[in-house]
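One record is kept unedited as follows:
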Amino acid sequence: MTDQPTDSPAGDPGRAPTEDELRAAYEAELKQLRVEDVILQTVVSLLNLGARKAGLVPGSEDELDLEQTRLAIEAVRGLLVPIDDQLGENGRPLRDALAQLQLAYAQRAGTSATPAPGGAESPGGAAQPGAAETPAADQGPGPAQRSGRLWVPGQ
């Protein structure tokens, strides 16, 4: 008996699988794949990426991008809706991770929403569209908050 690995789906040691064999193996995998599985994988990927863009992952502080964080949050919220019933209690870690990401976003957005001294710029130096000289508190809730689509702690 040999200890050589089998490279081929046909079982011939040392022979690379043919394109047809690879295609057949891929088709067999696709037949077993469910849309819920892809949604779940996408949700996990978005939560991980959103955490990086929020600066929550050690060493990712220089990747802070609140717009990307917001986009990840909105995408996860939308993707969880069709699979929420199937997740049941197994979805709790995902919902907890989403809540943590939302809280981090709200905290960081609150600190970066204040215009920098000398002008209406964000900490990155880019001018904020529609930023006025009056403080944000005087203007009331923004359009995302008024639409009810933005989760804000305590509201």
